[in-house]
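Throughout our pipeline, every protein is held as a single compact record rather than as scattered files. The remainder of this section carries one protein's record, kept here as part of the documentation.

===
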Amino acid sequence: MAQPPILSWEGLGLQQGGHWLLGGPERAPIDLHIGPRDRLALIGRNGVGKTTLFRLIDNRIEADLGTRKIKPGTRIVLLEQEPDFTGYTTLMDFALDGEHPPATHEVEAIAGQLGIDMATPAATASGGEKRRAAIARALAQDPDLLLMDEPTNHLDLSAIDWLEDWLTRYRGAFVVISHDRTFLKRLTSATLWLDRGTIRRKEVGFGGYEAWEEQVYAEEARNAERLDAKLKIEAHWLERGVTARRKRNQGRLEKLWQMRAARAAMISASSTAKLKLASDEEFKSKSVIVAEKVSKSFDRRVVIKDFSLRIQRGDRIGIVGANGAGKTTLLKLLTGEMAPDTGSVTIAKTLSGVMIDQQRGLMEPDRTVRQVLAEGGDWIDVRGVRKHAQGYLKDFLFDPKIVDTKVGALSGGERSRLLLAREFARTANLLILDEPTNDLDLETLDLLQEVIADFDGTVLIVSHDRDFLDRTVTLTLGLDGSGKVDVVAGGYEDWEKKRREPGAAKPKTVSTASKSAAPPPPPPPRADKLSYKDQRDYELLPARIEELEAAIAKGEAILSDPDLYTSDPQKFATISKGIENAQTEKDAAEERWLELAERVEG
């Protein structure tokens, strides 16, 4: 039998800045119910009110409309995106000052697993240390409902893995705002979509969100066209652009895979003849950065050791590794900002770079968007092409009307998007992105991937966002903290596969600049010929996937009845479970079919 919600909002409405941010008299009432074991992704563009909704749930602000109901004894804990450490001497002082103060040993136990010294002074702690301390504080309070606002920001890969494992075993409910697609796909089983002042809920994890979003927008567009409501159609320019962008990105992904195959051939000599690559002289002529036997140490600790790489014009390089492994050092070596102790880095004289760093402190809050983007004018030069500032804002998913809005009035994500718009306008053939995905919503990430894919020059990216790297880079440089750098054609997942290979505990640094460097072992041969069972699966799975999709749609149509939960909770629970099982089977079937299709087409 379905359990009653631990928290509910009925008829929720909130005004902000003279207009209704959430709900309101002219919209359908917002009803929100959170169950005791819900795993909810909260999705929505920057500025639509996701963080505000968290504060309403946590009772930090009052709504203008609606009734909030909470099960007695329910403990709600909010993990904020930017917690305030002002006034705290150490990270432990901060952690012990929660609304439900935890015991010191509980904080220390979690902090130990996260690898954070809670005696660190709060004033000098790094962004990663503060994020870990905030997580330790939140989890140690033993919440029944955990609200997480961008929990993976500033975390390295090992800390993200630990948090995912903890949340998998967590017995309470959680709602999470995150740009990390991999994190959301692995953990969530239902989605709350905050869009234009209303909230939709679907009993499907983030993995099914994009298909659902496009389905909703397509239906709205059809309704608008039937009504011949031109104003409504105009209001959907952004939504239609998102849908079209995703379709275009499928073509860009095909191009990315081809680039990865070509790059793999450059690394592995055994593949060169097969792919008919250019001559060695042509290969060298396209090089923009050449590192040869580069080493760097700090206080006798080796950070980079005997690293060699030839970076080509058009390469998209991802740099990954734990915090402190040397990612920033490697980036500075490759861009000439730091000199190596031994070895050499040669940079093409024609290389002109733009760096978009993770500080985002370059824009003053009292300046307007127009001043930041176009120095107060109406026009901006975008890589040599003159564009109207308002039209360019539209390219970056802004309402053009915000052109005279002050930067301080924008959300953190909107400020990050504005910074991207400004920096991408500059003429350059090298882009340097240090944690570019922090504070960005999913639509902006799609846009960022599109801009990177269409960029003619070379891109260097430091990021912990696994999905972003898998969709963007052609080559991954993986640091393990010992000074070795693995060079792998592909994205994060390709690097992970290499790390899991037998003998990968001592990976060899691969050099495309030195013929004496040992190439990586060739990939295992593809099993292109299918067995009888594989062939049957390949032929029959598409029909089964369609059956499951129909069953899911039928179940969701029944659950859309707002009175079902109260009138027949047993039926509600049975159908919900059926949808969950069908979705799990569908995901597995799609994964299986894609694997078989890859072998057939390979």
